[in-house]
Structure formats: structure tokens, C-alpha cells
């Protein structure tokens, strides 16, 4: 008798919204339980144990090293847009799929919220509860400002579409420097020139060793005085100490972000004290119908990749 | 850069920093440093349980060791990590 294959569903998020819905698990069971075993790992420890024995894994990002002893693994599906960089090396042996693009609209919507929040002069965690107008900063006029978008994947493109008529000028920086009509396009080698021209900079690029190398000391020293940086990408792109130093060096610099490292960001972390930092707790991808789209993507890939 | 069981804590930290610059999917919230050896890997440096396994393999691969992952289970602080490296570095 041949051994039944195992699908491990990693339900390891400690945020209630990102718990895998029962309906998705039931659908997987309905579709596949006659052919394979399906086990749900509802914690990191259980996940690490099950993932090492599984033929298939569905879950949130984890480094490839976690399953390096697993010689049976055939397919891994990430319920997120980004695949951890370490998976690049193993892609030849194991099929890896992701949910790229599923939440782009929602993240772009959240990006617009952060952009407008900064434009209207409220870039900090203390929400405007005062009825004293003097407590509010004077809004910026976007029609006299230049917006720069780093990364023109699905999210960057949506932000671009929404901001073209809002800002005086929109510049983009992409890995290849691909031509985007109506914008000035830059490559990573032109980072300093790109930053020097932007009042607002939106980060919408994946976390890779290559992208991270863009955010060294040169990044901050090239920013325009009083620039605003909006991070929709990953908290790990920017080092906390370097950001804190730039907040000291430039008294008008502002940082609005949906992503931090670690997450959730500690309530006593240094950014929480700053009047010029606004943090949302990685909620850009959260949207009322996002799980329906994630479930559809997951089931489609499962049908393609699970073989008894 | 190489280390031995008699390397100082500072030398081990320098080696770790150099190692981590080449490892994917490990990002420190703040750099390892001698004045924070008693701080927690998770809370202070942002290394969660998955990150710990990733870090474990980065270390044993570089040192050419074959050890079970359970060796990393008791790492709580940077000091624990340095102690592990010292115990397993060449010359130990």
C-alpha cells in the first residue's frame, strides 16, 4: 500500500484576520481528502514539525531552510504576494506559487490613504482630536509636488494611475528602468537623482538583497529636505537606526508606513514617540473580500499541483 | 573572516554580522553589538522562531557542522547564540 501524501496548511498568524478561514480548509478537504491527508498546523512549532514531512504546503512566508530536510516536498503555496528570497534557490526542485496581485488594489488604496494623510499634514500617530485648527499642520498642495514611486509592479502601477493627475509630476524607479509613459523613469543606478527630485517617495518594491541595498546611508542623504517617505513594501527595507537619525537630521522629514520590523511594532518603540512618523499595523492587504480572492487563487493552484 | 573557540565576543559578533550579510530572509531589527548581548533575539533583534532556524543553518553551514536543529531551541539571547558558536567553533 502506498503512503498517502500530506498537505500541511500553516495557519500560524496570530492576527485573527489572517487566520485561515474554515471555509477554505473545508473546501480543500472536500476537494482532496479522498486522495491525500490534510493537516492544519495552528502554531509555529506544529508547523515546523508538519512542514518537514509534507508533500505540499499552503501557508504564510517561511524561510526555505525550515524544510531543507524534507526530500518529499513538491509544492509550496504562499498566501502572500512575496515569496521569501531563500526560495529562489530551491525553485528548480519544488514548485512555488504565491498570491501576488491578489491584494494589490487594497494595498494601493491604503497607500492613497497614507499619501492623503501626509498631504493633509497629519503624519503622526496622534490623531487629530483637537478642535483647535492651530493644532493641525498646513496641508501640502500636491499640484506643486513631485511624487516618486520605487517599484512599478502591481501596487506601484496602481498608485501611479491614481496619482498622475494629483501630483505635478510623478517619477518612477524600477529595476530595469522600464519606460512608463507620462513619467520620468529611473534605474537603481540613478537613485540619487531620483530622490533629489521627489517630495514624496512611495516604496512599493519587493524585499530582495538587491532592493535592500538601495536603502543604505546614501538613500537618506539623497532625499530632498522635508521629504515624505511612505512605505507599503517591507519594514526590513529601512533600518530603524538610520531612519531615527534622519528624523533628527531633517526636522521636516516624515515617514508613514504600513510595515515595520518587527510586526507588530512595539508600543514603546522609538517611532511611536515621533510626531513625524505614522504607523498602521500592516493592514494594507486587509479588505473585506480578500479571503475570497486568496481562497480562489489557492484552490486553483492546488488543483494544478496536488496529485495523489 | 574565521573564528575559533577562543575568539572574543566582539570577534564572534563581527563574524555573525558578516555571515548575516550573505544570508537571505534574516533581517535584524538592530545590529548585533557587544553592549546588547543579554537582549532577547526575538524582541530586541526581531529573530522569530522561523528566523532562529534559518540562523542556525547559516551558522552550521558556515562552520561545516552537522547538528540537529534542537541545538537552537534554547537560544533566547544574543549571549546564548555566542555561547553556541564558541562551543562549536573550530578548536572547541
Question: What does it look like?
Answer:
The complex is a heterodimer of chains A (308) and B (92). Chain A is of the alpha/beta class and 308 residues long. In chain A, 28% of the residues lie in helices and 16% in strands. In chain A, strands 8-7-6-9-10-11-12 form a seven-stranded parallel β-sheet. Chain A has a five-stranded parallel β-sheet with strand order 2-1-3-4-5. In chain A, helix 1 packs parallel to helix 9 and helix 3 packs across helix 4 (154-163). The relative contact order of chain A is 0.14. The mean pLDDT of chain A is 93. Chain B contains three helices and no strands. The model of chain B has no long low-confidence stretch (mean pLDDT 92). By secondary structure, chain B is mostly helical. The relative contact order of chain B is 0.22. Chain B is 41% helix and 0% strand. Chain B has helices at 9-20, 49-63, 78-88. Chain A binds chain B through residues 44-45, 48, 62-66, 68, 84-86, 88, 207, 209, 212, 236, 239-241, 261-262, 266, and chain B through 24-27, 29-31, 42-43, 46, 48-51, 53-54, 57-58.
What descriptors fit this protein?
heterodimer; A: 308 residues; alpha/beta; 5-stranded parallel sheet; 28% helix; elongated; B: 92 residues; mainly alpha
Amino acid at each position: 500500500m502506498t503512503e498517502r501524501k500530506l498537505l500541511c496548511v500553516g495557519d500560524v498568524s496570530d492576527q485573527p484576520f489572517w487566520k485561515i478561514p474554515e471555509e477554505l480548509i473545508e473546501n480543500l478537504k472536500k476537494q482532496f481528502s479522498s486522495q491525500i491527508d490534510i493537516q492544519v498546523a495552528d502554531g509555529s512549532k506544529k508547523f515546523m514539525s508538519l512542514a518537514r514531512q509534507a508533500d505540499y504546503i499552503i501557508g504564510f512566508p517561511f524561510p526555505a531552510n525550515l524544510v531543507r530536510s524534507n526530500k518529499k516536498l513538491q509544492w509550496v503555496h504562499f498566501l502572500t504576494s512575496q515569496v521569501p528570497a531563500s526560495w529562489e534557490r530551491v525553485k528548480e526542485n519544488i514548485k512555488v506559487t504565491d498570491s501576488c496581485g491578489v491584494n494589490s488594489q487594497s494595498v494601493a488604496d491604503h497607500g492613497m490613504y497614507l499619501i492623503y494623510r501626509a498631504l493633509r499634514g497629519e503624519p503622526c500617530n496622534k490623531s487629530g482630536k483637537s478642535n483647535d485648527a492651530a493644532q493641525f499642520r498646513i496641508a501640502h498642495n500636491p499640484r506643486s509636488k513631485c511624487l516618486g514611486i520605487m517599484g512599478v509592479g502591481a501596487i506601484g502601477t496602481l498608485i501611479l494611475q491614481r496619482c498622475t493627475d494629483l501630483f505635478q509630476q510623478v517619477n518612477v524607479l524600477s529595476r530595469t528602468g522600464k519606460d512608463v509613459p507620462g513619467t520620468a523613469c529611473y534605474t537603481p543606478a540613478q537613485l540619487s537623482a531620483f530622490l533629489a527630485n521627489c517630495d514624496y517617495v512611495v516604496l512599493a518594491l519587493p524585499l530582495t538583497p538587491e532592493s535592500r541595498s538601495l536603502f543604505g546611508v546614501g538613500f537618506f542623504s539623497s532625499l530632498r529636505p522635508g521629504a515624505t517617505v511612505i512605505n507599503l513594501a517591507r519594514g526590513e527595507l529601512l533600518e530603524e537606526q538610520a531612519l531615527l537619525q534622519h528624523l533628527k537630521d531633517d526636522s521636516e522629514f516624515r515617514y508613514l508606513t504600513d510595515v515595520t520590523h518587527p510586526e507588530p511594532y512595539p508600543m514603546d518603540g522609538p517611532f511611536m514617540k515621533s510626531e513625524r512618523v505614522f504607523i498602521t499595523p500592516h493592514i494594507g492587504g486587509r479588505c473585506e473580500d480578500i479571503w475570497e480572492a486568496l481562497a480562489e487563487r489557492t484552490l486553483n493552484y492546488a488543483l494544478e499541483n496536488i496529485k495523489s | 573572516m574565521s573564528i575559533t573557540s577562543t575568539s572574543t565576543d566582539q570577534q564572534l559578533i563581527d563574524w555573525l554580522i558578516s555571515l548575516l550579510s550573505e544570508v537571505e530572509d534574516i533581517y535584524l531589527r538592530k545590529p548585533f553589538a557587544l553592549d546588547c548581548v543579554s537582549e532577547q533575539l526575538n524582541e530586541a533583534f526581531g529573530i522569530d522562531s522561523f528566523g532562529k532556524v534559518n540562523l542556525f543553518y547559516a551558522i552550521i553551514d558556515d562552520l561545516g557542522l552537522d547538528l540537529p536543529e534542537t541545538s537552537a531551541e534554547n537560544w533566547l539571547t544574543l549571549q546564548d547564540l555566542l555561547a553556541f558558536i564558541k562551543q562549536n567553533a573550530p578548536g572547541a
